[in-house]
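Dear Dr. K.,

Following up on our conversation at the group meeting, I've run the structure prediction for Guanosine-3',5'-bis(Diphosphate) 3'-pyrophosphohydrol from Sulfuritalea hydrogenivorans sk43H. I'm pasting the input sequence below exactly as I used it, so you can double-check it against your construct before we proceed with anything downstream. Let me know if the numbering doesn't match what you have in your notebook.
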Amino acid sequence: MHPPVDLAEDLERFNARLATYLKPEEITRVGSAYVFADAAHRGQMRLSGAPYISHPLAVAETLAGWHLDAHALMAALLHDVMEDTSITKDQIAERFGKVAAELVDGVSKLDRIEHQSFEEAQAENFRKMLLAMARDVRVILIKLADRLHNMRTLDVMRPEKRRRIARETLDIYAPIANRLGLNALYRELQEMAFRHAHPLRYRVLSKAVKGARGNRREVVSKILEAIRKTLPEAGIDAEVMGREKHLYGIYRKMRDKHLSFSQVLDIYGFRIIVKDRPTCYLALGALHALYQPVPGKFKDYIAIPKANGYQSLHTTLIGPFGTPVEIQIRDPHMHHVAESGVASHWLYKDESALDQLQQKTHKWLQSLVELQSTTGDSSEFLEHVKVDLFPSEVYVFSPKGKIFALPRGSTPVDMAYAVHTDIGDRCVACRVNFETMPLRTELRNGDRVEIITAPNAAPNPAWLGYVKSARARSKIRHFLNTQQHEESAALGERLLSHALRDLGLALAKLPAQAWDRFKRASGARSQRAVLADIGLGKRLPAIVARRLAEGAEDAVAGIATENRPHQAILIHGAEGVAVKLGNCCRPIPGDPIVGLIRKGQGLVVHTHDCTAITKLRSERGNWVDVEWESGITGMFEASIRVVAKNVRGVLARLASGIAEADSNIVNISMDEDHGEATTLFFTLQVTDRSHLARILRTLRRVPEVVRITRYVDPKQH
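The predicted structure tokens came back this morning:
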């Protein structure tokens, strides 16, 4: 149970804190916001039985501890009035100013909006909150203080609701606190969320840690004594303290690294605070002389800060009894930033060294706005943001020496998009440490990465399978969606022209009234959207043509018509995502072909005798007459099956024959050995049907070939 709330005592403590840094007139304005919120929430109680006003007061008190300004404190006191009472944003703006009203609106949940599910509603709320935060970081500071107090009073909730809120805190709010450098808040949110999400594990670990403290005391004292003796001998004045391991940190390390409890607890942590940056390195040298450092376990976050502005030297030493000792070394300024992060901006306004932290935070917040502009729905947006909220990073260099911080596991494609969207979109190859490497190569700390571009290159959908950064994933998806829309609209225009021609009409000569009438009746946004829907198979061209013809007749009598003979859609084989060649039959120029409009796929081209299309004969309205365009010069894939005698060197002779016929091998596979003969399957690049016939004739001259045919893979049907 929670102790009873003493509002008078809480209010007195809050006012005393305000008096340490706000002007008297600002304190008066904050006081009026408290009176207003108290009146608005009068009669409302929290589940704990406390008056509701105790919650906004607790939120404001947390912000006062970060020395936030009067606008943020007023917004904290008023943050629930729009949700829980009839008071509007305009009323708040009129009484307390536009800034406070915008902050309250940014923190408030979305309401009166229909969502398909709770998850969708939550995703939309996060989207709104994060975008408001991009405009003013105080929004998220208020929201984090709000979540902190809710977590501190979560015991009164039902168990399933406690678990849901705890999971949400671990997934979103704690990582945001970490991303903003609010380390103390981050740790407290994690600990409380762990306690509610996994109560049994929390109790077991808590009991085990308490039991182990006595055994550890001797080792900790020995290490502390050695450090406190060594540093003054080297002329270094330092504050040395042991770091208590957090339960969630222990749990996560046990789970992720498959370690036992004793293995995790046998690592001792210490923090050393010295007067300035140069002394950090002097202290490091003294400690490395005291205990043997562990190779590969030194990290210099002073020279290269983390994305959230965190700076310290990290090193791991082998202490007494062979126990690992983890040490962090920092100066007072770094310590302030490590504990308060972006809130240090209000605590230490005069320190110019915070500029870098502010710039990094601003850059990340602006990236949220950019993600919003290229992301479709709220769930996808939240998925992208989550990627950026777990900043296990790798640091790589451009050829000019610029450092880029990327999520761990990133590839050169992530690096290309981190440089610029155009570089990412035109990326074709890369050099890592002066060696040409595949684009899917996982980058490591310190890699020098050079991106090679080509003017006509475009993102590959396969990149989505291995990129790690939210920016790269979002930009690739945006490009592919835009490309599909454009190509689908172009295909839809060809299909609709074809259907209108059958009715004796010309697309270019349709009156605007016919299109207006069709858009009103169908609910279409624009003419371009209708054409894209036709290209994607969402609308049938024949039906759209008939409706447009009806609208044209009503609009204008005797419009110009075309009496040209019936013509087929011409296929040139490189249309892109809107026109696809069937994987089942792999049509090539010279093959008789038919076209089928499939919903969401666009126009799919098959050979006329493809066995896959016999199942689709009922879809009569979706069939389209298609023909190969004359003079096609591209390369197409065709598959052949070769039954050959199982003798040494036969594969080499077949490959030589294929090369002799001016073809490349894309893929080779074979059936299991069946005695004297082996069946081989080749996927080849050919220009047309005649080229394929020439290849087959060449291979038939190989003495070991028993039988050879063009092959259709039944698995692709």
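Two things stood out to me. Residues 201-349 form a domain with the Beta Polymerase; domain 2 fold (CATH 3.30.460.10). Confidence is low (pLDDT under 50) at residues 110-116, 347-354, 555-566.

Best regards,
J.T.
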